[in-house]
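Let us practice reading a record.
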Amino acid sequence: MMKTLLLCVTLSVFSVPSTRTEPFFREYHYVKALKTWEEAQQACRELHSDLATVDSPAESARLLGEVQEPGELAWIGLYDNMTKWKWTMGRPEFDRNIDYHCWQDDNPKYKCLNDTCATVRYNGLWRDEICNTERPFVCYNEQGPPKFIYVTTFMTWDDAKNYCRSMYTDLARVNSEAENTELYNLLPRNAWIGLYRRPGLPGLWFNVNCEEKHNFFCERLIPPRSRVKLRFRSGADLTDPQIQLQILEQLQAELQTNSLTDVRLRWITRDGQVFHEEKEEGK
């Protein structure tokens, strides 16, 4: 007896032009092998796509769910980037390629620590330091002279920022060589300014030295998928794996004749079966 059956096919499109806007799916892989950050990155690029990245709370939850031992540290793909520096006043983004800066040759030196803040030395050179360090600081007053106010009291960067905002305008921002010269002429020693790097990220992330060795997370980017349902009649035994393979091969050949060469097909199973009999109406 001929039966009307319903089957599902999943198409993973790799290079076929598409108007789809949904992102690639990140498939996370926890790798239990102690490596530095750079070694882990190289391994992930060889085995998968790259070190894991996280763009949403949902991805963060999925990644943390892969951790096999609670409390264990594991590398992800977050790393030091100059574009993450920001000013407390005015346009916040700091771009080393276009904005004025006067970093000392070996600075920023805390390459794997994102929670760092900038100081200006007595010679005008900038250094990055741990924000919890206590330093004197320079405020900016936009209401009247002098523009830069040197405060001798030692405070952490956050306390200095709060002080400047309560007493003046904000921690100092330096936009030119002339302003930098004016500022450092006030200084007998290193002092905080309003440049900092402190990203806010979902999840349980920690800043550690990139030379430490930890296990790590890789990601594999899975392209968007389309699910297609087909309805047809057949007298063959569709539970036979060989028959199922032949059908896939025939579908693949048909797609190729229509110039869809970069498509992969696979069956989707439901209740342990690929094919499901469709009940006729009235029966």
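A brief commentary: The two ends are 16 Å apart (CA to CA).
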